[in-house]
UniProtKB/TrEMBL annotation:
Residues 9-124 form the Transposase IS200-like domain. It comes from Agarivorans aestuarii. It comes from the Bacteria. Pfam families: Y1_Tnp. This is Transposase.
Amino acid sequence: MARKLRVSYPGVAEHIIQRGNNRQVTFANDEDMRAYVTWLKQYAQQHKVAIHAWVLMTNHVHLLCTPSTVTGISKMMQSLGRMYVLYFNRRYQRSGTLWEGRYKSCLIENEAYYMQVCRYIELNPVRANMVDDPADYSWSSYQCNALGKRSGLLTEHQLYASLGSSPIERQAAYRALFIHHIEGKLLDDIRQATHKGLALGCDKFKQEIETLTGLRVTEGSRGRRKGWRKFGS
């Protein structure tokens, strides 16, 4: 069976998750995470991908980013994956694969889900019982978005910029979003959409993405949408 084509579109935010093979450790210490972030920044800039949120866990990574080109994210992840695996294998005198196949991703409707996915990503260490407060975890974007820590990796999304007229106002408004955890249907929806490569948003958003790309981003439909050819190149 042919692999399902991954959907990406310029200007549309995308949630990405990549896990270690068999959930094995991919980051053994801070030095590993620092190396990964260095290359992530390099290849994001090279392939014109804006990184808005991230978290590096012991055996997986979450990213929220917006590409400027159709292939930007896939090229970024391919370059990053190759470089980091080479580094990891040399450092720990191992060979073979590190990541669990291809990364998983889904497109995000900004108005309804962008901030929810930010919360989902940055609350990962809390859900994993690693910390009680996301502010206490160093390897995520929370300290940047909520506390003003500077990072050359971060690009502010327009929705984040709309939270306030000053950095202090935006950070306070952002912190207020984290009073409650991600639970129930919302948690399931984010996980399912990312795992299955679907779009996360309203029906209109999903239909627009399918029309623009000619690819399925909803469950229940099959193959390419009618009329997809006139948008392809």
